Amino acid sequence: MIRFEGAGKRHPDGTIAVEGLDLEVPTGRITVLVGPSGCGKTTLLRMVNRMVEPTSGRVLLDDTDVAKLEPAKLRRGIGYVIQQAGLFPHRKVIDNIATVPYLLGWDRKKARARAAELLELVGLAPETAKRYPFQLSGGQQQRVGVARALAADPPVLLMDEPFSAVDPVVRAGLQEELLRLQSELHKTVLFVTHDIEEAVRLGDQVVVLREHGRIAQLADPHTLLTSPADDGVAAFLGRDRGLRGLGLRPAKAVALRLVGDGLRYGGWELALDDERRPIGWIDRGAGTAELQPSAGYHPDTDTLRAALDAAVLSPAGVAVALDADGRAIGTASREAVLAALTPVGLAPVRTDKTDTVGVTNTVDVTDSAGVTDSAGLTDTVGRTDTVGGTDETGAADGADGGR
């Protein structure tokens, strides 16, 4: 567990970044810090690995004051992921991942074997190991950054807006990958973001911060979206927080009309190929055989938001439920999706109500010494990094900006 007890940071010029914060980050869970720029999110996160030293209060890691721990040793026991990955440009991917094991004295064979395991764990092909960072896409670099943070199997993972520099599609994939990894590894994760949608998707608990690191609300995502603490929090969450809430609820709650029941919806029919995969909607009412696109979702893995989106995009107003192989198992109208919504605090209830929707089947490392990255790590010669870390000699870092 990470615990902040009256933690504060006042810079020499009198600027207050954080003032008197009390917060517990539960073991094995994802806690997300979210708030406007300058509210102290990153300052708080960097207090944990002593890249920022609090000027008041203390930060405890498993009941030990981190101020009593040697900085370099502390950091090697904490995973750290930042924007744009912060990889060593002169090192191949496999040696980037193995950075902390090397610093801990692992032999090269053991460190590289661990790096190869992590490549697979984060979904990268084995041949990626021999590439340099500049040969990777932004999303691939971030995956390498996550793998590097996990290399020595640290119990704590600090993530400072790690997915903000990639496009929305890649970001969604990385978020899904983090949730998958967390379901397997159960790390204690402190995650910083300015994106409320990312916060509610990833967090077991979400901490909304105001100026000077003051807590405006601490809650699970569902409570945060449905019961904001005040008008300020509600404004920060945005007017579409109800729609965001749909993204927290499983699509399997939607009652389906199964394909085998001879489905039809008004004048529309859904055409399937011989393997029961949807190929489009036919408007029988218009007397045309022209196919209109169908939109699908996966009940076992998607959310109500995905189901509703598929229904809205469908010309028939009906979403197609698909199995893992893309075969149709049933359909759900917009009304069926909305019927799955239940009063706040109650579990979704599956109903027997079905619509009259129809389906028709149709045919058919060597590196050079002394280079440092930007993520708070030092390489084997122990130089100071570029964001204010402390090297193995104990040299002090620079002041943090209070972001």
Report what the structure shows.
The strands form 4 sheets. Strands 6-7-8-3-9-10 form a 6-stranded mixed sheet, with helices on both faces. The chain is globular and about 75 Å long. The protein has 403 residues and is α/β, with parallel strands linked by helices. The chain contains 13 helices and 18 strands. Helix 5 packs across helix 6 (138-150). It has 2 domains: 2-246, 3-Layer(aba) Sandwich (Rossmann fold), CATH 3.40.50.300; 251-361, Roll (CBS-domain). It has helices at 41-48, 71-76, 93-97, 99-103, 108-121, 138-150, 168-185, 196-202, 221-226, 231-237, 241-246, 304-313, 334-339; strands spanning 2-10, 16-25, 30-34, 56-61, 64-65, 78-81, 156-160, 188-193, 205-209, 215-219, 257-258, 268-272, 278-283, 291-292, 296-297, 318-322, 328-333, 358-361. The relative contact order is 0.14. A hairpin with a 5-residue loop joins strand 9 (205-209) and strand 10 (215-219). The longest helix is centred in the middle third of the chain and has 18 residues, at 168-185. Helices cover 28% and strands 22% of the residues.
**Count of structural domains:** 2
Topology-level CATH name of the largest domain: Rossmann fold
- Number of helical stretches of at least 4 residues: 13
The outline comes out as globular
- CATH architecture of the largest domain, by name, is 3-Layer(aba) Sandwich
Name the CATH class of the largest domain: Alpha Beta
The major β-sheet equals: 6 strands, mixed
Helical amount:
25-40%
Q: What's the alpha carbon Rg, rounded to whole Å? A: 25 Å
Domain ABC transporter: 2-237
Family: Belongs to the ABC transporter superfamily.
GO molecular function, one term: ATP binding
Biased composition (Low complexity): 378-403
